[in-house]
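input
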Amino acid sequence: MLSHVGMTNFPAWFLCIEAFRILYQIFVKAMSSFTINFPGTPSQFTVKASSAIGQKGGQFTGDSSKGTFRIKTAIGGVEGSYEVLGPPSGNTTPIQVTITKKPLIVSTNQIKEAISDFF
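output
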């Protein structure tokens, strides 16, 4: 079965571990980005995000232009970064959020909804 790809000498357990490692890289560590429109200034975003993440026991490092965050949940950690895309437009500030690590069973849309609920 695997002779055509040169993997006949590997034990089955190794192939299972390697398959799991590849799936982990694809689904758990996959980066994804989305934009939120924060109702306020970049400075207000920094204060509110830092407070919300800190209250949940997470770490927030950044300023009014960019930064990183890390928070643990019951099913695994979420890590990412943010970047203010430009000056406020009207009453909102566009902020790009990039998720660099998340639990396998949590979709990026669920994370986006949770972040949007803070604001």
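quick obs: The CA atoms of residues 41 and 61 lie 17 Å apart.
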